[in-house]
Amino acid sequence: MKGTSFAKRFAWEIWLPIVLLVVWYFVSERFNSFYFPPLSEILSASAQIWIWQGTIDDVVPSVVRLVSGFIIGTIAGIVVGVALGLWRAAEDAVRPVLEFLRAVPGVALLPLVILFLGVGDSMKIVMIAIVSFWPVLLNTIDAVRSVEPVQLQVSRSFHIGGFDRLAFILLPSSAPQVFAGARTALATSVIAMVFTEMVGSPGGIGYFILNAQRRFDTVDMWSGILVLGIVGYLLNNLFRLVEMKVLRWHHQMTSRAQTGA
Fold first, then answer.
1. Pair 140, 78: CB distance under 8 Å
2. Which of 40, 55, 144, 246 shows its CA 20 to 30 Å from the CA of 211?
3. Nearest-CA neighbor of 212 among 204, 222, 202, 201?
4. Domain of 232, in residue numbers
5. Euclidean distance between CA atoms 187 and 3, whole angstroms
6. 165 with 207, same domain?
7. What is the pLDDT of residues 166-177, one digit of tens each?
């Protein structure tokens, strides 16, 4: 039953990309365009560049920067979000600063970050952390404040300490919404990774795409975009596996509520 469910879900995920690739293949083969080269050339160049020439090494630093910045931003967002969610007075005190910083796009801070950290890996990781911080923070604040008051009242009546209340009531109850914010943060982190690699020191998928564009090599440029999409898809599925593992209890409870079991 699980195998059938997985196959059906995979079929629903893969049908549209296959249709788009088939349409692209036939259209690009018939109407040869400089901006949209034939798909066969892109796939051939991708295999040559990323596998046989060893350019796959450019992917590893990008993934390391992405994961490092995402983890730092997520942890910071959870810690600050829990604190502000629990202490409303503190959230009211820092709200003007939070609203000001949230209104400033993360990429707008890039010149300032470069000024302090240069154009190396530190700058890229910090920028990714900044971009991923806000979705997690806002979802965590809302999740902590949405915990059932009855649960907190019962915990107090049983004299459950603050740390145990946080570890066994607040965090588990907030986890579904926190993961939703983290998934949004992962998508924005990929954007920040590509942007910082395009303006920073050489290396990474973003720099490869920009360098190909500067050389007017559209085939290499599209191969870089293809690899970037594959990396993003794999990271998203890996995140989904972690989410399913951590929130198994939540999904089981939701499934039972929907089926009436």
1. yes
2. 40
3. 222
4. 42-259
5. 28
6. yes
7. 888 888 889 999
